[in-house]
Amino acid sequence: MAEVFRCTGMRSRSAIYVSAPITTGSRYIAWMNEGGDPSDYRRRVVEANIREAEATVQNSRSHFGAPLIDPTALPDVDGWTQPDYHAFWTHVVEEFVSTIVFVDGWEYSTGAVLELACGLQNRIGLLSSTYQELDPAAIEKKGREAITRVSSFSDFESLKAAWSSAFIALGSSSAHQQHPSRNYLQ
Fold first, then answer.
1. Can you name the residues that pair with 179 across neighbouring β-strands?
2. Residues 96, 1: contact at Cβ < 8 Å?
3. Which of 78, 88, 104, 110 has the fewest CB atoms within 10 Å distance of its CB?
4. Whole-number Å distance between alpha carbons of 6 and 73
């Protein structure tokens, strides 16, 4: 499916990617804390996350002079599991993305943390939703806080594993040097 991006003429490492919680994130934590009524999940978590991401997507379209990839625009793919989405989007990030913009609350999203790890491993620019560079110390602090917050939930093993990958990438990459996002900062 990533071939679709090639069909549009998108060049390698030319796009901005907006990373956002979709099926997890802080809304998912709140929903779980309130009992996790399955009949209310889509409205309270998924649709609310997508609505919040819309502002960052629109602002980023105006801010950057580059193609923008919005994962919230992809409809559900029949037969795909969360690991399928994670594999697809990290492949897209690795091949097509120069800078990732993270929607607030990204540190509680398994997919966003996997995209962060991919960005670190591939020296992709990492920015907050206000276009400030995410520095290694801030990333590590967010990770430790997220893990502490979800430590009592058994449902967050995938988030903990994603953070483990991000911490490894943070330590093994040249993450303590500048990321190449400077060319997009205005």
1. none
2. no
3. 78
4. 18
Asked if the structure places residue 7 within a domain, the reply is: no
Assigned domain for 135 exists: yes
Owning domain of residue 40: 12-72+82-184
- Name the 3-class secondary structure at 47: helix
**CA–CA dist 74, 123 (Å, integer):** 25
Do the domain assignments include residue 77?
no
The CA R_g of the chain, rounded to the nearest whole Å, is 16
CA distance 43 to 24: 12
Model confidence pLDDT, tens digit, residues 102-125 = 999 999 999 999 999 999 999 999
CA-CA distance, 173 to 177, in Å (whole number)? 9
Looking at the 3D structure of the chain, how many domains does it have?
A: 1
Distance between CA atoms of residues 91 and 101, nearest Å: 17
pLDDT band at residue 9 under the 50/70/90 scheme: low
147 CB-side CA count, 13 A: 17
Return the residue matching tokens 């697809």: 88
DSSP 30-74: HHHHTT--GGGHIIIIIIHHHHHHHHHHHHHHHH-SS-EE-GGGS
**In the prediction, which pLDDT does 154 show?**
76
Question: Angle at Cα 15 formed by Cα 71 and Cα 59, nearest 5°?
Answer: 65
23 has pLDDT over 80:
yes
